């Protein structure tokens, strides 16, 4: 999902500079002058963009705090914060002004004296919603931290996903390791994708191939009875003829033994990872 920039058009020069710096860092930016076309419903397009954004960068200036459009965008962002219980609105201080109530208790990116320092604060602030390969899945009774990486095994590409599931009220954690080894044809596909659409989207292509195959199988779950590693192996197929991947899924419990088996929904975790990567990358 993109990062939405809310601003007054009086500050267009600064906003263009900021947006271009973010784009150079592979951040997907939604800027009204870049996205709106003749005849578009401005209200609908902006509302949809705010609702679908990873974060809202609110540019604070004398002009923006007086703008009715900016106030409406800010209200929509604050409503999302309350509903989703996470930080959505991120204030950016361009100049001294009457700071809105919402921003008085927030850390803001300060551009008043140093553009580079302010930019660093913005990049660090949005990293958790724009990094496609690193995230957290939050559920009512547990959360899962995960990452996706890539490597080389005897000349063949390997994609590795690591998950750590941490139950809120249990004395153990679950480690899930998914290793996807591409055959020569799949390795060629990965390399072509990495060159044409970028490394992150190449990793996403591989993850999509895995999840598409899992949809055609019974839901993949692992039942862990003890401290030993539970291993599942399967072969999945890509969209190109002879594009195949050998998959090893290892799950194990760490911590205290409760005397009960633990059921891990591996397919659901892989699906969540794909959803996050797709949202962060917004592939065509």
Q: Can you describe this structure?
A:
The chain has 9 helices and 13 strands. The protein has 2 domains: 3-130, Toll/interleukin-1 receptor homology (TIR) domain (Rossmann fold, 3-Layer(aba) Sandwich); 134-281, no CATH class. The chain is globular. It is an alpha/beta fold and 284 residues long. Helix content is 39%, strand content 30%. The strands form 3 sheets. A 6-stranded antiparallel β-sheet has the order 6-7-8-9-12-11. Strands 2-1-3-4-5 form a 5-stranded parallel β-sheet.
In short:
With 284 residues, the chain is an alpha/beta fold. The protein contains 9 helices and 13 strands. It starts with a strand and ends with a helix.
Feature tags:
six-stranded antiparallel sheet; alpha/beta; 284 residues; five-stranded parallel sheet; 2 domains; 30% strand; single chain
Reported for the largest beta sheet, the result is: 6 strands, antiparallel
* Secondary-structure element string: EHEHHEHHEEHEEEEHHEEEEH
Average pLDDT works out at 82
From the alpha-carbon coordinates, what is the Rg to the nearest angstrom? 22 Å
Distance between the termini: 12 Å
User: How many structural domains in the coordinates?
Assistant: 2
Helix/strand structural class: alpha/beta
Q: What is the strand content?
A: 25-35%
């Amino acid at each position: 999902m993109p990062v939405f920039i809310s601003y007054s058009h009086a500050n267009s020069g600064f906003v263009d500079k900021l947006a271009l710096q973010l784009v150079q860092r592979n951040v997907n930016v939604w800027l009204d002058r870049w996205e709106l076309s003749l005849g578009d419903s401005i209200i609908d397009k902006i509302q949809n963009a705010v609702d679908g954004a990873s974060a809202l960068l609110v540019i604070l200036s004398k002009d923006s705090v007086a703008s009715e459009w900016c106030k409406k965008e800010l209200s929509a962002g604050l409503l999302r914060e309350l509903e989703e219980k996470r930080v959505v609105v991120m204030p950016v201080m361009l100049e001294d002004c009457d700071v809105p109530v919402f921003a008085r208790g927030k850390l803001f990116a300060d551009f008043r004296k140093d553009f580079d320092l302010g930019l660093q604060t913005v990049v660090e602030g949005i990293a958790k919603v724009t990094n496609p390969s690193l995230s957290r899945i939050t559920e009512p009774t547990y959360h899962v931290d995960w990452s996706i990486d890539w490597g080389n095994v005897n000349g063949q590409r390997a994609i590795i996903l690591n998950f750590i599931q941490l139950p809120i009220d249990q004395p153990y954690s679950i480690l899930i390791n998914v290793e996807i080894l591409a055959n020569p044809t799949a390795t060629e596909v990965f390399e072509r994708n990495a060159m044409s659409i970028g490394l992150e989207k190449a990793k996403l292509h591989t993850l999509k191939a895995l999840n598409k195959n899992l949809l055609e199988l019974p839901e993949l779950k692992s039942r862990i009875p003890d401290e030993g590693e539970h291993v599942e192996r399967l072969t999945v197929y890509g969209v190109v003829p002879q594009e195949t991947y050998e998959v090893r899924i290892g799950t194990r419990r760490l911590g205290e033994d409760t005397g009960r088996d633990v059921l891990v929904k591996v397919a659901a975790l892989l699906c969540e990872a794909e959803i996050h990567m797709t949202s962060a990358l917004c592939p065509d």
